[in-house]
Amino acid sequence: MDKFRIGDITVHRIEEWQGTFVPPEYLFRGFQSSGWEPHEAEFVPDFFRREDRKLYAFLQTWVLDTGSRRILFDTGAGNDKVRPGIPLFGNLKTDFLERLARAGFRPEDIDIVICSHIHVDHVGWNTMMVDGQWRVTFPNARYLLPLADRDYWDPAISTQGPGETGTVVNAGMFEDSVLPLIHARRAEWVDDGYEVLPGLSLLARPGHTPGSMVLRVASRDDRAMFVGDVVHHPAQIYNPDWNSLYCEDQEQARISRRLVLNEAADTGALFVPAHFGGAHVVRVAYDGKAFKPIYV
Ligand SMILES: [Zn+2]
Question: What's the whole-model pTM score?
Answer without folding.
Answer: 0.97
